Task: inverse folding
């Protein structure tokens, strides 16, 4: 299982993720988010960092803004977390790998939700339905719904995952579960990670999968 730590706003946290051999670092480019990366971390700093895949998270941004940010920050992947259309995903995917995020509530119709996005994305990400919010709530949805996921299209699991959820997470038998995405439950405050918690989480995940 791959690991993505999202909401990075500091160079020192990014460097620690590389030391810990985390697979993906997420940078949020949504101005309404308290973890808005563009106002907190220098584009050149991110662009020149190597040893980790850099994922830009966007919410209903213009295609021009997404493509410009990919170049400025040297992004390897884009996570589209708003109401982006399949055509929008396809256009961005011509440049980088695309993760399309979907918010899951009390129940889910997988085909209606996902079918149109299957050909134009590389991964899905499932986060918790949060009304008008676009993630970052620290709440999780009912993971039992994932047992009905009918596709092989790989996905990231997000939403309210902390150290307490690790044992349950490691017991999930989901062939398409590619990566886990953590954020708010590993923070001192928005955008400031508790790197000791991050290290403990990574150790638990890696020790299980490296056995």
Result:
């Amino acid at each position: 299982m791959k690991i993505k730590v999202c909401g990075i706003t500091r160079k020192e946290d990014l460097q620690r993720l590389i030391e810990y051999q985390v697979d993906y670092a997420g940078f949020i480019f949504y101005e309404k988010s308290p973890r808005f990366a563009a106002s907190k971390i220098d584009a050149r700093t991110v662009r020149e960092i190597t040893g980790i895949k850099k994922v830009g998270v966007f919410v209903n941004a213009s295609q021009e803004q997404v493509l410009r940010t990919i170049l400025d920050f040297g992004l390897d992947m884009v996570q589209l977390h708003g109401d982006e259309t399949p055509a929008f995903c396809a256009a961005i995917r011509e440049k980088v790998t695309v993760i399309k995020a979907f918010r899951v509530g009390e129940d889910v119709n997988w085909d209606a939700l996902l079918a149109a996005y299957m050909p134009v994305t590389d991964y899905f990400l499932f986060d918790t339905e949060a009304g008008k919010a676009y993630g970052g709530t620290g709440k999780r949805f009912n993971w039992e719904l994932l047992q009905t996921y009918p596709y092989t299209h790989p996905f990231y699991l997000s939403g309210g995952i902390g150290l307490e959820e690790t044992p349950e997470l490691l017991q999930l038998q989901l062939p398409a579960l590619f990566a886990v995405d953590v954020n708010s439950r590993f923070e001192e405050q928005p955008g400031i990670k508790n790197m000791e918690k991050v290290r403990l989480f990574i150790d638990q995940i890696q020790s299980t999968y490296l056995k």
Observations:
- Strands lie at 2-5, 24-28, 53-58, 77-80, 97-104, 123-128, 155-157, 177-182, 187-189, 192-193.
- Residues 195-209 form the longest helix (15 residues).
- Residues 74 and 181 are 20 Å apart (CA to CA).
- The two ends are 13 Å apart (CA to CA).
